[in-house]
Amino acid sequence: MKIAEVIVDITNSQVDKIFDYEAPDWAKVGMRVYVPFGNRTIHGFIINIKDDTNIAKSKLKKIADFVEDYVVIKEELIDLMYFMVKKYHLRYADCLRLFIPSEMRSEHVKPLFNTFVSLNLEKNIEEYKLKIKSNAKNQQALCEYLKHNQYYLKSELVKKFTRQTVNKLIEDKILLETKKCVYREPYFNKISNKKVEHTPLQTRAIETICAANGTYLLFGVTGSGKTEVYMSVIENVINDGKTAIMLVPEISLTPQVLANFKARFSNQVAILHSGLSAGERFDEWQRILFGEAKIVVGARSAIFAPLSNIGTIIIDEEHESSYISESNPRYNTFDIAKFRRQYNNCSLVLASATPSIESFNKAMSGEYKLIELPERINKKPLPKIQIVDMINELRNGNYGMFSNALLSELNKCIKENHQAMIFINRRGYSSFMRCMECGYVAKCSDCDVSLVYHKDENRLKCHYCGKRFAALTKCPQCGSNSIRNGAVGTEQVVSKLKELYPNIKILRMDNDTTRNKNSYQKILEEFAKSTPGILVGTQMIAKGHDFKDVTLVGIIDADQSLYHSDYKSTEKTFELITQMSGRAGRDKEEGKVILQTYVPRHYAYRYIANYDYKSFFKKELNLREATKFPPFTTIIRLLFTSQFDESVREITKVCYNEIKDLKTKFVNDFVYLDVMKSPIKKIKNKIRYQILARLKNDNFNEIICKIYDICDKYQNKKVSIFVEINPQNLS
Ligand code: ADP
Ligand code: ZN
Ligand code: ZN
């Protein structure tokens, strides 16, 4: 007798175990099945088949049936499941759910069948024609029409020849009706594939990547032709009979990007992103599973695509935080990519104009191989960045949101019939306090990160250590009383611009104006048509766009992201402003960037203005080392949430005590450990406490396993515990 190990499709820690069932003959690893469970029948996944079990024969239940008659989860992904369960402390069922389209589980999507008709081949066409009345012109014509091809979509024939005619011939058995499964195809703009001659730098990059199956960091400035490198690498891989995954952040997966891939690789490409209908997503996934599509282009979750024999994995804009899943199941796309790279022995390419400090550090240490594209295509210069001191503007009596420099550049841009983009640098909603006289911003005395102003308590808080400070009323640096918090919004900027330029098209793009599914695309299309025109927006407008007429980029409050309460805020600022600047001067006309700041001498701006990533990297890395932040340490947050204040406090306390014991054993590894209320004390009626720790990296794996054990021991029905590693957001 064969025994199947089954994970039932319920995400509940109590039943997230491997169950043994008697396996029917047809059972295969990776199939979805119906299994009896308690007094119900539910879905499960077969993850192993073996010969023996410890369960008594009399107690062993049998798998009832299959859900699909084919394997939906390939062996590689089952190995990946074990890897993820261990590494991130996830439930089996949560991992497995990532590997199939969610629509499949609800059983709402089904393969799409269409009705086709063809000529009945029992007799030849002349005999049929004789049978049809000679005055039935339509029937004669249909018969003749079908001579040329085997199958026609019935609905199309109906349009051409009327339903009556088609049905009559089916009735007379001249035509046969068949149902066939068809794939729903996502819509694409059709463009033709443009062949370009590679620059020597592109050629070198492509050859290096194709030469060995390593991990590469492709560091190429904006407009350096990285996309062409990706496509050629993929072309080589396909010619070798292998497959490829290309990841792009959701926000950059524009129709333009997809159309480019489709033009080059036609129906060998499958796309996976949130804009597809359930049916389209299911069909694209099936085409991948059955080997019909060999290239997958998609957002983060496309890393789980059921490809076999992968030849390359490419991650574009690798610095984007969206590659890290912060909600359950939590995972980091790079870990998954590295796993699949090893499993398939293929190349992995991380690419960016502004690599994350962590990735560049790995390139410096030799863990990744660095490939550089330091020039724009055709050696076009990067736009000149002019830094404008807003405190100086105040002193000169300009209290508006636009500096004189920005206003005069805007006038010029519009007079010349060009386009401008105005970027409001806002990340999240947290606010800081700033002196309007000298630019001073309150920071934590221990952590050197900006403090967050909490309006409800009228206090400043550090999100890394929990320390609280009185809200500023007077600047400790210059004594001024003009302290402000909060930021300029897109709406304010747009209405000011409309006053200044009543006859110019001014568009706005932010969370509010892009709620509807297609509005993002519509705004971009409208902007493309508007010369002169101005697009005002948040970081949504910063990345990837390729508008030929944009000659001016204005950055309204560059400092906003600098004072996000986050050890990565300087890095993020560098990234955002560099990407935003990259939108200007992409075609014939030269571009210009006006960067408005209250701290013009901040080191980040000095490096940004010179496009000097490497010096910025060195400086930033030194700071991280001195302040003991990643990549030199790892931040762990244990988040305790519950409706019951007493229970959550109690559990938090026991866990904290156990971790304190752990700290005495690993004294040198803990850089920081404390327990506190979370900065946001309550979300959806659940009270939140947290334990924060920073650990050196050497014994991290050992310690985190022990921490997971502690969580397992104390987690219960009333209190849930989340472990976050290097969380992006500590609210
Ligand atoms: P990046 O992704 O590095 O910002 P892109 O891949 O968008 O840059 O390339 C910028 C522009 O240069 C695109 O319009 C692209 O079609 C064009 N391009 C890329 N490679 C070449 C080449 N070898 N010759 C001419 N044009 C090229
Ligand atoms: Zn001051
Ligand atoms: Zn602090």
Mean pLDDT: 89
The CATH superfamily of the largest domain bears the name: P-loop containing nucleotide triphosphate hydrolases
Termini separation:
53 Å
Percent strand equals: 15-25%
Strand element count: 32
Count the DSSP helices. Answer: 23
What form results from the Cα inertia axes?
globular
Structural class: alpha/beta
Description of the molecule:
- By secondary structure, the protein is an alpha/beta fold.
- The chain has 5 domains: 2-106, PriA, 3(prime) DNA-binding domain (GIY-YIG endonuclease); 112-182, no CATH class; 200-373, P-loop containing nucleotide triphosphate hydrolases (Rossmann fold), CATH 3.40.50.300; 384-429 and 488-624, 3-Layer(aba) Sandwich (Rossmann fold); 634-725, Ribosomal protein S10 (Alpha-Beta Plaits).
- Helices cover 34% and strands 24% of the residues.
- It has 23 helices and 32 strands.
- The strands form 8 sheets. Strands 11-12-10-13-16-9-17 form a 7-stranded parallel β-sheet, sandwiched between helices. A 6-stranded parallel β-sheet has the order 18-28-27-19-26-25, with helices on both faces.
- Helix 22 runs antiparallel to helix 23.
- The mean pLDDT is 89.
- The site of one zinc ion has 7 residues, from loops.
